[in-house]
Write a structure and sequence with these properties.
- The protein has three domains: 153 residues, OB fold (Dihydrolipoamide Acetyltransferase, E2P); 176 residues, inorganic pyrophosphatase (n-terminal core) (Alpha-Beta Complex), CATH 3.90.1640.30; 107 residues, Diaminopimelate Epimerase, Chain A, domain 1, CATH 3.10.310.
- The chain starts with a strand and ends with a strand.
- The strands form four sheets. A six-stranded mixed β-sheet has the order 7-8-9-10-12-11, sandwiched between helices. A five-stranded parallel β-sheet has the order 3-2-4-5-6, sandwiched between helices.
- 45% of the residues are buried.
- It is globular, with a radius of gyration of 25 Å.
- It has 570 residues and is α/β, with parallel strands linked by helices.
- The structure holds manganese (II) ion.
- Manganese (II) ion binds next to loops.
C-alpha cells in the first residue's frame, strides 16, 4: 500500500470558517467541516436540522398526477397492478415499498423480480412475457429501479393494453420509453436537486404523490403513514451508494430511525441475524444488511429477500433471514476465492494492467460476485478495474471506477467492441466476445490515460482541516451527531491534530490494533487505531489524522479519536 500523502480536501479560507462559526455560534471544528464541504451559510441551518417537511412536493415530477390517478383507478376497478423490480437491494426495497403503500389502499399487487442470470438486468420484452406468464394479465405495470431505457418492452406492454409507469434513477438513453409517466429525476432538468435519488427514492416519490392524490380527491390514502416506509428508502438509498445529501439525507435520517424501531418482522429478523448490537447506523446497512439482501440475488433467489421484507409473520421472517445467511456465506466464499485468484494474476503480471487501469479475467468465475471483487481491486490498486468471467466465447464483467473518471463514458468509446454495456459512472456492467478482450483493454486503457491525470492515481488521504484536542468539547460532539447520517459524499469529518504526545499505548485484538492516550497542548484524549500495531506509536510526538467519536457501544464513556493515519514528528 505504501505511505499516503495528506491532502486538505476543501478549498476554503479562514474567513469562510469564521463567518459560519460566528453566524451560527458553532464550535470551530464544525464550522471547518461546513467550509471544507462547500456547505454555504445559507444551507447550514437546514443541514443541522433535516426535516421531513423540507422534502419537496412530489407533484414536481411531470406526469406523476396522471400516474397516481391511474393507480387509484386500478384499485377502483380491481385491476391487478404488476411491479417490475430489480434483484439488488435498491430494486427489492423499491418493490416492497410501492407494493406496501398500494396494498394498504386496497390494490391487488404482484411483484416480479428478474433473475440475475436467467433474465439479466432491467425491464425487457422477455421479462415482460415471463412476468405476465407468472402473474396473469394486469391493467397497470410499474417499473422500479429500471425501465428508463426499456423502449421496446414498454411498447410491447402498451400494445397489450397495459398502462406503464416507469420509475427509475438510471441515466436515460437517446429515446424515452412511451409510458404513461416517466418518474425519473435524471430526465427533467428542473429536478436537478433530485438527481441523487435512488430507485427506492424514486418509488417513494410516486408513493408520496399517490397518497397525496388519494387524500386530495377523497379516494383514500388517509391511513398510510409514509414516515413508516422510510426504512425501505434508507436501505435502498444507502445500498445503492448515492450521495447522502439533499433530500437523500432527510430520507435516510428518518429511515434509519424507522429501521431502529424495527417496524416489520422482516427488518427485525434481518437486524438480529446480522448481529447488529449497537445503535443502527448507515454503515450497518452498507456492511451488514445490504450484503445479505444482495446475496439473495447474487447466489440464490432475490425473491427470498423480497419475501423477507414483506413478511408479516415473524416465523416466516426468521426462516427467510436464515436463508439469506446461507446465501451470504456462500457469496463470501466465492468472492474470496475469485479475489485471491485475481490478486495472484495481478501480482504475477498475468492480468492486463498499466499504471492507469486493470482488467482481470477468469474462466467461469461466479458472475454474481465479480462486481464486489472489482470494487475491492479498484480500491487496493487505486485504478479503474474491470473483472470478467469467461464463459466459452462470451465474457461478462463488472467495472469500478476511481476518482472522477466516468467509466460509462470511457466504455462508450469502445462500444464497437462490446456486445452490451451500461450502468453508472462509477460502476458498470459489460458483455463482449472473448476474442475481443485484448483489443478492448487496449482501447479502454488509452481512453483512460486521456481522461485521468497522474495526480489522481496518487494515494492520498483527505482531511477537512486542522483542530486542537481542546476544541473537542461536549458541544462539539452534540453538533457532530447532527451532521449525520454519514455515508457516501457525507463522510465523517477527519481532522489533522499536530504534535500530539504519546502518553501511553498498548496492543489490543491480539496485536492487530492499538489503544492509548494522546496529549495535546492543554488536554489528553484516548485513541483507538485499527489495523495499526503498537510499534507504529514508538515516536514520542505525532501528527495525527483522526475522526473524533463517542463510544456507541458504551454510552457515557469519554470520547476518543479514531486514528486514520499518523506521521512521526520526532
Ligand atoms: Mn438503483
Amino acid at each position: 500500500m505504501g505511505a499516503k500523502n495528506w491532502k486538505l480536501s476543501g478549498n476554503f479560507l479562514t474567513q469562510d470558517v469564521d463567518l459560519i462559526q460566528q453566524k451560527f455560534s458553532l464550535p470551530r471544528p464544525i464550522a471547518v467541516y461546513f467550509a471544507s464541504r462547500g456547505i454555504g451559510a445559507d444551507q447550514v441551518r437546514d443541514f443541522i436540522n433535516p426535516r421531513l417537511a423540507n422534502l419537496s412536493d412530489p407533484y414536481r415530477f411531470p406526469g406523476i398526477k396522471e400516474a397516481s390517478a391511474r393507480l387509484w383507478q386500478a384499485i377502483a376497478d380491481r385491476e391487478p397492478i404488476l411491479i417490475h423490480g430489480d434483484y439488488d437491494t435498491d430494486g427489492i426495497t423499491a418493490s416492497a415499498l410501492l407494493a406496501l403503500v398500494l396494498r394498504q389502499n386496497g390494490a391487488v399487487v404482484n411483484s416480479f423480480i428478474p433473475h440475475r442470470f436467467d433474465d439479466g438486468y432491467g425491464f425487457t420484452p422477455e421479462s415482460l412475457e415471463k412476468a405476465l406468464e407468472m402473474f396473469g394479465k394486469c391493467g397497470v405495470l410499474v417499473t422500479v429501479d429500471c425501465g428508463i431505457t426499456s423502449c421496446e418492452a414498454v411498447q410491447n406492454a402498451v400494445a397489450m393494453g397495459i398502462d406503464v409507469i416507469v420509475t427509475d434513477h438510471h441515466e436515460a438513453g437517446s429515446e424515452l420509453p412511451k409510458a404513461l409517466a416517466v418518474i425519473n429525476p435524471k430526465v427533467y432538468p428542473e429536478l436537478e436537486d433530485l438527481q441523487l435519488l435512488s430507485g427506492a427514492g424514486a418509488a417513494f416519490k410516486l408513493s408520496h404523490a399517490f397518497v397525496k392524490y388519494g387524500r386530495e380527491n377523497n379516494l383514500g390514502g388517509f391511513q398510510t403513514n409514509l414516515e413508516e416506509v422510510l426504512d425501505y428508502v434508507a436501505l435502498g438509498t444507502v445500498a445503492d451508494i448515492v450521495p447522502l445529501l439533499g433530500e437523500n439525507r432527510i430520507l435516510v435520517k428518518y429511515g434509519i430511525e424507522a429501521l431502529r424501531r424495527q417496524l416489520r418482522p422482516g427488518i427485525r429478523a434481518l437486524i438480529e441475524s446480522s448481529r447488529i448490537r449497537s445503535e443502527l447506523a448507515p454503515a450497518d446497512i452498507t456492511f451488514r444488511l445490504a450484503p445479505r439482501i444482495n446475496a439473495a440475488g447474487r447466489v440464490g433467489d432475490a425473491n427470498v429477500a423480497l419475501q423477507l421484507l414483506e413478511s408479516d409473520c415473524i416465523v416466516d421472517a426468521y426462516n427467510c433471514a436464515g436463508q439469506l445467511e446461507q446465501f451470504n456465506r456462500n457469496r463470501q466464499e466465492k468472492e474470496q476465492e475469485i479475489y485471491q485468484d485475481a490478486r495472484e494474476q495481478i501480482e504475477r503480471n498475468l492480468a492486463w494492467q498499466s499504471p492507469y487501469s486493470l482488467l482481470v479475467a477468469g474462466r467461469d468465475w461466479h458472475q454474481g460476485v465479480i462486481g464486489i471483487v472489482a470494487s475491492r481491486l479498484a480500491r487496493d490498486y487505486n485504478r479503474p478495474t474491470i473483472v470478467l468471467t469467461i464463459q466459452g466465447d462470451e465474457a461478462y464483467g463488472s467495472g469500478r471506477s476511481i476518482a472522477n473518471l466516468n467509466l460509462v463514458e470511457v466504455l462508450s468509446q469502445s462500444a464497437h467492441l462490446l456486445e452490451r454495456y451500461g450502468g453508472h459512472p462509477m460502476a458498470v456492467g459489460i458483455g463482449l466476445k472473448t476474442e475481443n478482450i485484448a483489443a478492448f483493454y487496449e482501447e479502454m486503457d488509452r481512453e483512460i490515460r486521456k481522461q485521468i491525470s497522474p495526480s489522481e492515481l496518487e494515494r492520498f488521504i483527505a482531511y477537512d482541516g486542522e483542530a486542537e484536542l481542546e476544541e473537542l468539547t461536549p458541544e462539539f460532539f452534540t453538533y457532530l451527531d447532527r451532521l449525520s447520517p454519514f455515508g457516501h459524499s457525507n463522510q465523517k469529518p477527519v481532522y489533522r491534530f499536530n504534535e500530539l504526545r504519546v502518553v501511553r499505548c498498548g496492543a489490543i485484538g491480539g496485536g492487530a490494533h492499538t489503544r492509548g492516550t494522546l496529549q495535546g497542548r492543554h488536554r489528553q484524549m484516548d485513541f483507538i487505531a485499527f489495523n495499526r500495531p503498537v510499534t507504529e506509536f514508538s515516536s514520542r510526538i505525532l501528527d495525527v489524522l483522526a475522526t473524533p467519536q463517542l463510544n456507541r457501544q458504551q454510552p457515557g464513556e469519554p470520547p476518543q479519536l479514531n486514528i486514520i493515519d499518523i506521521k512521526d514528528v520526532y
